[in-house]
Amino acid sequence: MDEIVLKLQEWIALYGLKVIAAILILVIGTLAAKIIRAFIRRLLKRSRVEETLVSFITSVSYVALMAFVIIAAVGKLGVQTTSFVAVLGAAGLAIGLALQGSLANFAAGVLMILFKPFKVGDFIEAAGTMGGVEEIGIFTTELKTPDNKKVIVPNAKITGDNIINYTAKGTRRMDIVACVSYSSDLDKVRKVLEEILSEEERFLKDPAPTIGVLELADSSVNFAFRPWVRTDDYWDVFFETQEKIKKRFDAAGIEIPFPQRDIHFYKTE
After folding, report:
1. Among the listed ranges 25-29, 40-44, 57-61, 169-173, which one has the minimum average pLDDT value?
2. Kind and range of the H or E run holding 14
3. What is the pLDDT of residue 88?
4. Which residue would you say has higher pLDDT here, 19 or 260?
5. Whether 169 contacts 183, CB under 8 Å
6. Is the pLDDT of residue 116 over 90?
7. In this structure, are residues 96 and 111 in contact, taking their beta carbons and an 8 Å threshold?
8. What is the DSSP letter of 138?
9. What radius of gyration, in Å, describes the C-alpha atoms of the chain?
10. Cα gap 231→166, rounded to integer Å
11. Is 136 in contact with 49 (CB distance < 8 Å)?
12. Could you tell me the CA-to-CA distances from 255 to 55, 149, 217, 237, 245 in Å, in that order?
């Protein structure tokens, strides 16, 4: 019994202070990690970073700090941590290689959140699809197509090509080409188009609209009709204007070439 007590005393004398030091490192390190996490969160929110990115960065920083604290505490007990760190590094490398696609999407998501090429509610064209932005996540972006389909696009695909944001600006130009026959009175055609332009209150005065002969094509004279509208009014005015041009040309006796090439739509830049 005395021998056991002596052994216990020796063990306490040898490892007691190390255990206490390890516990102190663990407690103080955990407290410091929480303080640093809170500081990073406040700093990011003050910089108006998206909440999704704030949560991710603070979580990653806290886990990294806690890993450092645990390794320091274990090392204080006399455990060799070199091999442990090497194993963690190798595991991290293996995980990184296995998830390189996800990491690419994550990096793209971070860039989109930081530089904001578009925001929730914008109508964009990217990665071979188009739709309204419903959610910008760390790995994917959700779009709602005009026919009410939900499209989930990896962020790396979005940032890997051109992004067309149709609602980033407050105004858009309508590009309509009205084709008339060579026998048509061009002054009469211009007058009809100018009447349509003056009657529609949703056409903007500034920037100024454009009406002019765009092209002398093989079988038609092509007029460019390019008014500006508010982005929110674009599609309603576009459809109504096409119909109005056709009806006004018919009423004025302006001949439209056959096959039907009266109005064409070109995407605005």
Report:
1. 57-61
2. helix 2-46
3. 64
4. 19
5. no
6. no
7. no
8. S
9. 33
10. 8
11. no
12. 63, 40, 15, 24, 12
